Amino acid sequence: MNAAERIRAVRGLRAAHRPVLFDIALAVTAAIVEVGLLFNDDTRPAPMPIAVTVLSGAVLLARRRFGVAVTAVTVAAAAAVVAAGYSPGGAPVVVALWSLAETRDRRLSLAALAPVVVFLLAESICAPPAPVGAWMLGAYMQTRRRYVRAVEDRAATLEREREQLDLIAAQRERGAIARELHDIVAHSVTVMLIGVRGARDVMETEPLVAARTLEQVEASAEQSLAELRRILVLLRGPETAETRPQPSLADLDELVAGYRAAGLPVRLEIAGEPVNLPSGVELSAYRIIEEALTNALKHAEATLVTVRLRYGGADLEVRVHDDGTATGGPGSGGHGLVGMRERVAVHGGELETGRAPGGGFRVAARLPIGGRA
After folding, report:
1. Concatenated DSSP letters of 43-96
2. How far apart (Å, rounded) are the C-alpha atoms in residues 133 and 141?
3. On the chain, which terminus has fewer CB atoms closer than 10 Å, C or N?
């Protein structure tokens, strides 16, 4: 055990013993004061009143656990001293009343106060201000202690809530990173995988086509690595993050061209006059289209995928429909469709996914654009 640990242990020991030491000092003081009050008028000391006074002081050591019984014993001791012809000062009784008000329910201590005050006044032991003042001091100390405890409990509750909020924020951040990695890696890997398979199939018959396909796969791989580096830099710290802009709807032509090169026939249709949109809406629409095209490439076996963007009014409509005949469409698990729903929900929009009435699979999203950038 080092010096710091020894110091903490000593401090903890002192804190644990502090109430006991206080009670001992209180009992000794009350007994000494009472003995002094008994014999302050030239009354000769006698063993009986001194023994009773010491006993009434000693029972104060149990004031925290047996408040009512301690009060009753001190009152009985004072009555015995009075019956023996002496004039006690009532110090143990006053201390017992103070302790009762400090440690017990308010109604209980108040119920004990009235008969004790009447007894002390009737036996001419002490005037009412002393016991009443002691009771009021004890009641105040109890109120103060409860207030401090309530403040500490509130602080502990706030600390737990803050830790829970930090945990929720961390979970959301991990979810956002997972979605971003899915958007960046899964789509690019899918396109590269399809491209490599296509190049392998035509390697012997059309080597030039295979070479161009592999060049596109290489470019996609380089782009994915750059995006991964950007994400890793963001995870290390914002002060070193790159300032490369996120993709937007202006990059749709490049996105569609990449999927066409991978063998997916895609038709892009834009209705209405394009307008400046909030960056979050642009990124969400781009990622939804990217996810839908990836699903079509992996699952649909489609001969045509139509991407429609419609500007106008207070909403941006995004529709991706394929004419695929595959029975195993994109599932609801993973980060794909879940990420779509979360992106749409953030903006208060609506998302519909599922088999289209005329065949194929459809993704339809409505993103509010009332607050344009």
Report:
1. PPP-HHHHHHHHHHHHGGGGTTT-HHHHHHHHHHHHHHHHHTT-----HHHHHH
2. 12
3. N
Q: Which of 52, 62, 59, 129 is nearest to 88 (CA)?
A: 52
Residue with tokens 């000092």: 25
Between 47-58 and 91-103, two packed helices, what is the crossing angle to 10 degrees?
A: 10
pLDDT, tens digit (0-9, with 9 covering 90-100), for 73-129: 999 988 888 888 888 888 898 998 998 988 888 889 888 888 988 988 888 888 889
Q: Are 353 and 363 in contact (CB under 8 A)?
A: yes
C-alpha dihedral, 110 to 114 to 120 to 123, nearest 10°? -160
Q: For 31-71, what is each residue's pLDDT tens digit?
A: 888 888 877 766 677 788 888 888 888 888 888 888 889 88
The least confident of 5-19, 128-142, 164-178 is 5-19
**Domain range summary for the chain, segments of one domain joined by +:** 3-127, 245-373
Q: Which stretches does DSSP call E strand in 302-346?
A: 305-310, 315-322
Cα of 173 vs its chain's centroid, Å: 14
pTM above 0.85, yes or no: no
Cα 44 to Cα 30, 88, 319, distances in angstroms: 20, 13, 108
**Tokens 């001992």 sit on residue:** 24
Nearest to 60 by CA among 86, 88, 34, 87: 34
Give the chain's length. Answer: 373
Distance of alpha carbon 246 from the chain centroid: 30
Question: What architecture is the 245-373 domain classified under in CATH?
Answer: 2-Layer Sandwich (3.30)
